[in-house]
Amino acid sequence: MKDKLVTLIGGGGFLGRYVTQELLRTGARVRVIERRPRDAWFLKPLGGLGQTQFVAGDITQPQTLTRALQGSHAVVNLAGILSGDFQAVHVDGARNVAEAARAAGVEALVHVSALGADSDSPSAYGRSKAAGEEAVRAAFPQATILRPSLLFGREDSFVNRFAAMIGSAPVVPVLRGAVRFQPAYVADVAQAVVAALADPEAHGGKTYALGGPDVLTMSELFRWIAGAIGREPGFIELPDALGGVIAAFGAFPGAPITRDQWRMLQSDNVVPAGAAGFAAFGITPTPLASVAPAWLVRFRRHGRFGRIGEAA
Q1: 84 — phi, psi (to 5°)?
Q2: Residue 164 to residue 273: CA distance in whole angstroms
């Protein structure tokens, strides 16, 4: 990847910062596309002088992509939303990126989808991710599609959100306690992105499901987090009937969960049996317990001076 120009759509996001670091480490030049480039300026210190570029672009405005992708050797589409206009971002936007990449003559395209992508998904999110994959394949057949599970990492909004809740409440409600997850470490997924870019002949046209080594239920995850931060709240597993009522208010500001997220929780989020994954890239996925305690320390009663297992 040395000296190649890789354009990241949505490079200023959570996964994007790790992909940027991996690319810069290989000696690649990185062009970060954001609607507001200043939102990604924090990436500047990660590379050498002139190694990172910042350009305004919007996947819902295809004319901006035509200019932004000029001269690129490879493109990564990291754009995604958890609520809002899924059609515009996950489907039409994905198609715009793939068509612009084809027109620019890039060597490789990596499209980051999601493990829950399924045309029969009960959630609009899952269906839109599946439709986006189809749109990408139609426009750029040799694209590599990555389906990561929920991502964890120092800046995540997944484990950290639960840790903040567990660390501040004596009683913690648990929705869909039996649903299973297979969270993946964000740095491992970033490595997979770069590996796919580096060898498009081996990975082009393929789809990979990226899940970590741990399969946890929602209840198990909450209890693991509690142990990691030395808290002992009471956990109350809410019945589905009550969970559905809570989700019905998802359109209101501050709601803990949207209706569509509730629908997503009706199914396990794990790698299907036999699906190609991290092993295809020579990556051994990182367990949650081996890295998360390093940043979860701030949620302990006395911060980094608190003892693991100390009661709240």
Answers
A1: 115, -150
A2: 33
What burial class does residue 302 get, using C-beta atoms within 10 Å of its C-beta: 0-12 exposed, 13-18 middle, 19+ buried? exposed
Structure tokens at 72: 């690129």
**Radius of gyration of the CA atoms of the chain, in A:** 20
Residue 50 has pLDDT above 50, yes or no: yes
CA distance 235 to 290: 24
Residue 122 CB-half CA count within 13 A: 11
- Predicted confidence band of residue 8 (pLDDT cuts 50, 70, 90): very high
- Chain-centre distance of CA 203, in angstroms? 20
- In 182-221, where do the E strands start and end? 184-185, 207-210, 216-217
30: pLDDT strictly greater than 80: yes
Condensed to tens digits (0 to 9), the pLDDT of residues 163-209 reads 999 998 899 999 999 999 999 999 999 999 999 999 999 999 999 99
What is the phi/psi pair of residue 3, to 5°?
70, 0
pTM: 0.92
Could you tell me which residue, 90 or 260, shows the higher pLDDT?
Answer: 90
SS3 180: strand
CA–CA gap between residue 196 and residue 277 (Å, rounded): 12
Long-range Cβ contacts of 306-311 (<8 Å, 24+ apart)? 306/229, 306/230, 307/230, 308/227, 308/228, 308/230, 309/227, 309/230, 310/230, 311/230, 311/231, 311/232
Reading the block at residue 93, the tokens are 């936007």
d(CA 277, CA 210): 5
